[in-house]
Amino acid sequence: MTFLNLKELTDCIENGSKVKFKVKVIPSSKVNLIEFCDEFVKIKIKEKAIEGKANKALVNFLSDELKISKSKIKIINGEKSSIKTIGINL
Fold first, then answer.
1. In the β-sheet with 41-44, what is the strand arrangement from edge to edge?
2. Contact 24, 40 (CB under 8 A)
3. Closest Cα to residue 88, out of 77, 75, 72, 70?
4. Position 26 in a domain
5. C-alpha angle 90-59-35 in degrees, rounded to nearest 5
6. I want to staple 44 with a disulfide (CB 3.0 to 4.6 A). Which of 6, 15, 33, 72 is the partner?
């Protein structure tokens, strides 16, 4: 799925839908930030991509932004890649 903004994504989640979407993670950024693009959601994370720290920071950041439990967010594909598939299952 592709989303144009955070509201579209949160509305889809609030409707109880199982949501899957692609993200491009940019680790070692100056700020944590989410941007919506045509093909994927671009997420900048402060944490470095060492020993899964960026993945953990990604889940924490999404949890905070979407106001859902971290346990509901899964990295389905791309654990060691900058392009990941995220699944959210309420």
1. 33-36, 41-44, 19-26, 83-88, 73-77
2. yes
3. 72
4. yes
5. 100
6. 33
User: Does residue 1 lie in a domain region?
Assistant: no
What pTM did the predictor assign?
0.89
Q: Is residue 14 in a domain?
A: yes
Alpha carbons within 13 angstroms on the beta-carbon side of residue 88 total 22
> Could you tell me the CATH number of the domain that includes residue 13?
3.30.1200.10
Contact in structure between 19 and 8 (CB atoms under 8 Å):
no
Q: Domain residues for 18?
A: 6-88
Distance of CA 74 to the CA centre of its chain: 9
Determine phi and psi for 74, rounding to 5 degrees: -130, 140
Residue 46 in domain: yes
Give CA–CA dist 60/54, Å, rounded.
Answer: 10
Please say whether the beta carbons of 58 and 66 come within 8 A.
no
Per-residue pLDDT tens over the stretch 37-70:
888 899 999 999 999 999 999 999 999 999 999 9
